[in-house]
Design brief:
It is an enzyme of class 3 (hydrolase). By secondary structure, the protein is an alpha/beta fold. The chain has two domains: 6-242 and 432-471, Ribonuclease Z/Hydroxyacylglutathione hydrolase-like (Metallo-beta-lactamase, Chain A, 4-Layer Sandwich); 251-416, Metallo-hydrolase/oxidoreductase (Rossmann fold), CATH 3.40.50. The chain is built from 15 helices and 21 strands. It has a seven-stranded mixed β-sheet. The chain has a seven-stranded mixed β-sheet with strand order 8-9-10-11-12-20-21, with helices on one face. Helix 7 (251-264) runs parallel beside helix 8 (279-291) and helix 9 (300-312) packs across helix 10. The protein is globular, with a radius of gyration of 23 Å. Bound molecules: zinc ion (2 copies). Residues 3, 92, 94-95, 202, 455 line the site of one zinc ion.
Amino acid sequence: MIGGNQFFLQDEGARIILDFGIPFKIRENYFEEFLKPRTSAGLEDYLKTGLIPPIEGIYRNDLLQIHQIIRGGGLPLHQQPAYDLLLLSHAHVDHGGYIPLLDPRITVACSQMTGTILKVMSIVGQAGLEKDYLEFRVRSEEGKMSKNKAEKRIERSFHLYDKENPFFREGKVLAHPVDHSIPGAAAYIIRTSKGLVVYTGDFRVHGIRKEDTFNFISLVEKLRLSGEKVLALLIEGTTLQREDVSGHYSEDDVKTSLYALMKSHHSGLIIVDFGPRNVERLVLTIEAAQSAGRKVLLRLPDAYLLREINLIDPAIPGPSHPEVDILLERRSTEPKKWEREIITEYKNKLITPFELRKNPDQYVVLFSFFDINEVIDFNLNQGVYIYSSSEAYTEEQKFDIKRLRNWLKLFNFEFIGDPENKTHNLPLHVTGHAYPDTIREVVERIKPEILIPIHTETPEKFIDIAPFAKVLLPVLGETLYLSPRA
Ligand SMILES: [Zn+2]
Ligand SMILES: [Zn+2]
């Protein structure tokens, strides 16, 4: 299964959770846009459909109470949570989306950057599917998060670490940054009584932060060569199912393609579409646009995200970048507090659809399919839409592409990178996950005794990749023993 990582590690007294994400594959078996888990039923819909495991001592007692009423029993309430630490690898919802269901006393450890992205997601309301549960509020100065609802306020304990301070649990856990399609991603090295347990999270080596991943591999290899036992490696294998990822393009190649397309389309508006919070792609698009003599127009949520991220990592440009302006879209409600902040702070950079239509050939607009009807307000009759996102996998996504095609026809826009109608060979998207030969290199250099494939549809492929290791294929809900039971 790809995503929905939820792992529970037990060693003597230590009990650690590795990620607690939304398993989309299971979710789409039962739910869709208009059929969601009922928030009034607490945990019940999630437990019944197997979206979360029936483990004692990890969930919020208030949600467990509802569960007990509905079942007339079930999971008991607890005084103290059975786990006290959750290592969150990054801010994608397939890794952290169900954290709000957990007992808030379980400390969530994540990078400062991940904490910032979670905060922005909650404030701008892009938290994802279980939005009602995802209304986090970070009060980073205290390292605490809370769920801000009038009737109950849940304070969640967070440990936000930075580069200077990656160790915790008396040095037994080390967080290490890795390259992925969202900033702030980390892998973890956990020192157990039987050896090191290494958790990769999601990673790759073809983005801007590839050195982070290489340093992580070198570190584990060095530990092994200095005599430490690498007991187990939990490693993602997202790309192993697809043989066609052998193109081995990098984010830099995508930037080159974007630049070439922007350069060759000098009249009309250009819209670029990529996944939410893919900050690296966003920055590369700004650079490509700058070289092609266009400014990038950000939507308010992206401007807010960039502003917050820039405060944590000044190397990532904020909305004050000279080649960035902000699109002020039509709205029917009063701006929220965070929107007012952006509107006031960057008042000299605001562009309305009316202003945009005067000189559309000077701009690149960052939109996704869900923003497409905003194009109506631009009142244009030509332009280019560059799809720089992953292929459509689910039926729903395929339908969205069909709808997108209809919209673009309506606007007389050229659709470049239509996933079902490739008209050229320029790489317009690369995956956030390591290519197969990188996975092979990681496995060979880390050389674990036990390998546990995760985040993959083809776990059995690791048997060939790691002939020297014992490959344990995880089964949902079952315990894997990393050492003989005492
Ligand atoms: Zn993932
Ligand atoms: Zn991810």
